[in-house]
Design a protein that fits this description.
Order of helices and strands: EHEHEHEHEHEEEEHEHHEE
Number of strands: 12
Shape: elongated
Radius of gyration: 19 Å
Strand order of the largest sheet: 2-1-3-4-5
Number of helices: 8
């Protein structure tokens, strides 16, 4: 079932949209502000986000920008109370897939959601299994295997490993990993990343992959020449 995240501080607008979207078979969840939206996007991974621009605290433009900077391709439809081409252009430049002005006809919103999902389907479905060396990570089952042996990883270790496997060879800064795995509002420091990377390294010994330190920056996943 397709999961839609609706982000708007006006609950009555959400309830109206939810009624029409659920009639069309979508599962709809709600976030009233940008920080909660980011947590939901990074951890629950909805199939589409409907995102109001004017939010308390972090605005919709900031949310959209940070989602795209993290490499998340989730389709985003921006909402605004202003019929302003500047808003539309800025939203699209930041990576939004469509734009609708409030007040909107809920039937039009449903049609826009379906149209965006059809367009973005050409990107291909989200990958559910990632492999490197002898490591296999199953996103749906949240399982990690090394060869024929399933290994136990902590939840944040799993999320870290998924980030590395999604972008093999990419150098991640500690701040980027902190944002990706722990969320933009996490109050801890980057030593948390180091501790979890150390745990992953121990569990991945002999797997044919290694988390390499990028000195002065962060980490990247590399495949060993021999297993």
């Amino acid at each position: 079932m397709t999961r839609v995240l609706f982000v708007d501080d006006e609950r009555n607008i959400f309830e109206l949209a939810r009624l029409y979207l659920e009639q069309e078979g979508f599962t709809v969840t709600y976030a009233p502000d940008g920080d909660q939206a980011l947590r939901h996007i990074h951890h629950e991974r909805p199939d589409l986000v409907i995102l109001d621009i004017m939010l308390p605290g972090r605005d919709g433009w900031s949310v959209c920008k940070e989602v795209r900077q993290a490499g998340n391709p989730v389709p985003i439809i921006m909402l605004t109370a202003k019929d302003d081409d500047v808003d539309k252009i800025l939203g699209l430049e930041l990576g939004a897939d469509d734009y609708i002005t409030k007040p909107f006809n809920p039937r039009e919103l449903v049609a826009r959601v379906k149209a965006v999902l059809r367009r973005t389907a050409s990107r291909g479905p989200a990958k559910q299994v990632y492999c490197a060396g002898d490591v296999r990570l199953d996103v749906e089952r949240r399982e990690v295997w090394v060869g024929s042996k399933r290994i136990n990883v902590r939840p944040k270790e799993f999320d870290l490993l998924q980030a590395f496997l999604e972008h093999p060879g990419r150098a991640w800064s500690r701040d980027q990993l902190l944002d990706r795995v722990w969320g933009y509002t996490y109050a801890g420091d980057t030593r948390t990343v180091d501790v979890h990377v150390a745990g992953l390294r121990e569990k991945l010994k002999g797997s044919g992959v290694h988390i390499e330190t990028v000195w002065g920056y962060g980490y990247k996943l590399v495949e060993s020449e021999t297993s």
